[in-house]
């Protein structure tokens, strides 16, 4: 038994020693393993790592695609496009060249509003380094870098409609003035490229660039632009074998060139002194593209609240965003302050009043669809046999003679059911004198006053006749300048000497066409 006890004790001591050795080995191993575990835990994936990897991935893909784009043959994109869509058709210029057409009449382009580039020639301290850099057109880089300085330099003087003190912004010259509005957004570039296919070049093409912010007559007063257009057309006719020019105006450029044709015939100092036969001798044809001869209703919303279609769409996605003081910019305030100094916008206010655009209960379009239905391209919908897909249940008696309506129900209701409170006239009479002498530019409606806002809204509906009163109410200085340069009526007698004034020259309802019976006029 004693032997057994000793043996048992020996075994237990051995097991105890073995356990001690195992524990020591574990401790020893832990000394070597713990740094690895700590190292592993210290490299745990973080959000910062994800961002770095993502940026690196995007940059790598970008450089790879850029390398691929610069190394691949130029024909591969065309090959891929043709594989997807089929063989590409020839551009119009190539087709004309195959038909044997070549250069004939010189071509003059007249750009519209906002499509011509403007560059800085003199500015304030905030515009240092921008000499002859584009403020309008191109990349619009300065709009993002220094927006307040940009808006200041793009504005005109609110009293004269010309340059503010210490600022000179001038139109870019040459075909590059309006070939592209911005990167990837062409205006005249495609037409220029197609004409080049049949032999046209800069000596047979001329871009009649002008400062589209100014009133038409002020482009001559400040820059002598009308005189330059006259001289360039005369030069092109003289250097091209006496062949008369073909003029292609677009948008507001249509009105501008209409003004030019009357200006060039009129005697100095108001006109260019070319005489009544100048157009007949120098112009073969005028091809008007999208000409707002009678004005456009959206110009009213632009002047009234700076809400053209693009801004209205933006506000549906982000209601109230443009109204707020975002980073101190006060977007709407500065937009309205800037655009209400651009006198050219008043050339597109609807002309002819209710005679042309309709009244409270009628309009030339007659009945139309509601806002949810597709707009018909046909001017008349009386003959429904020719339009088989019309859903008559969707038709509403929306009257387009009502240029502005406060509420959709007001736009659709008959005039007898609309309760209009004519507070506008009383409010205008009470405040007009103070407005003309004290206000700078009304930039926010709380500056107008609650009672005047209520007067505007309570009038409910504005036609082409009453919108002029409305614009005089909300923008008196702008309309005071506009009244000296533009007219919106219908002439009773075109032989009346008053219609020889330049304010009537851009209104086709108050001016005569040039004395050029062989001159062709097209409107697209």
From TrEMBL:
Coiled-coil ranges (or none): none
Subcellular location: Membrane
GO biological process: triglyceride biosynthetic process
Single GO cellular component term: membrane
Family per record: Belongs to the AB hydrolase superfamily. Lipase family.
Name the UniProt record assigns to this protein: phospholipid:diacylglycerol acyltransferase
UniProt organism field: Gossypium mustelinum
Membrane topology: Single-pass membrane protein
Keyword Transmembrane helix appears in the UniProt entry: yes
Domain of life assignment: Eukaryota
Keyword Nuclease carried by entry: no
């Amino acid at each position: 038994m004693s032997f057994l006890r000793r043996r048992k004790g020996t075994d237990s001591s051995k097991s105890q020693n073995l356990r001690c050795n195992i524990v020591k080995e574990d401790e020893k191993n832990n000394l070597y393993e713990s740094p690895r575990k700590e190292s592993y835990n210290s490299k745990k994936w973080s959000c910062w790592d994800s961002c770095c990897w993502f940026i690196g991935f995007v940059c790598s893909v970008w450089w790879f695609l850029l390398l691929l784009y610069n190394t691949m043959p130029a024909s591969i994109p065309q090959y891929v496009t043709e594989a997807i869509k089929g063989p590409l058709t020839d551009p119009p210029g190539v087709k004309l060249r195959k038909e044997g057409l070549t250069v004939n009449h010189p071509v003059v382009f007249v750009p519209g509003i906002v499509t011509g580039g403007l560059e800085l020639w003199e500015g304030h301290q905030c515009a240092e380094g921008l000499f002859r850099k584009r403020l309008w057109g191109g990349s619009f880089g300065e709009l993002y870098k220094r927006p307040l300085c940009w808006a200041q330099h793009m504005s005109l003087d609110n009293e004269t409609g010309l340059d503010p003190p210490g600022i000179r912004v001038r139109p870019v010259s040459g075909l590059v003035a309006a070939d592209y509005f911005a990167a990837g957004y062409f205006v005249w570039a495609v037409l220029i490229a197609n004409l080049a296919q049949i032999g046209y070049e800069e000596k047979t093409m001329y871009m009649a660039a002008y400062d589209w912010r100014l009133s038409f007559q002020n482009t001559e007063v400040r820059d002598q632009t009308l005189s330059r257009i006259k001289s360039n057309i005369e030069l092109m006719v003289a250097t091209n074998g006496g062949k008369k020019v073909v003029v292609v105006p677009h948008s507001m450029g249509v009105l501008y060139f209409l003004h030019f044709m009357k200006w060039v015939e009129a005697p100095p100092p108001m006109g260019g002194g070319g005489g009544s036969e100048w157009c007949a001798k120098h112009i073969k044809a005028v091809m008007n593209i999208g000409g707002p001869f009678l004005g456009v209703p959206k110009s009213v919303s632009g002047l009234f609240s700076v809400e053209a279609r693009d801004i209205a769409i933006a506000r549906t996605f982000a209601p109230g965003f443009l109204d707020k003081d975002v980073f101190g910019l006060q977007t709407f305030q500065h937009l309205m302050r800037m655009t209400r100094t651009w006198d050219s916008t008043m050339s597109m206010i609807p002309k002819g009043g209710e005679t042309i655009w309709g009244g409270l209960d009628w309009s030339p379009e007659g009945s139309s669809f509601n806002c949810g239905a597709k707009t018909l391209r046909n001017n008349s919908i009386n003959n429904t046999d020719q339009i088989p897909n019309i859903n008559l249940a969707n038709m509403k008696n929306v009257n387009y003679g009502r240029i502005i309506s406060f509420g959709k129900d007001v736009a659709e209701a008959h005039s007898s059911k609309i309760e209009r409170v004519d507070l506008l006239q009383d409010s205008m009479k009470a405040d007009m004198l103070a407005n003309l002498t004290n206000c700078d530019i009304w930039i926010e409606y709380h500056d107008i006053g609650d009672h005047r806002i209520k007067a505007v809204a309570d009038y409910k509906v504005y036609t082409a006749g009453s919108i002029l009163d409305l614009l005089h109410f909300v923008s008196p200085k702008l309309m005071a300048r506009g009244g000296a340069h533009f007219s919106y009526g219908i002439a009773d007698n075109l032989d009346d000497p008053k219609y020889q004034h330049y304010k009537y020259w851009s209104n086709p309802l108050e001016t005569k066409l040039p004395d050029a019976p062989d001159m062709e006029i097209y409107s697209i």
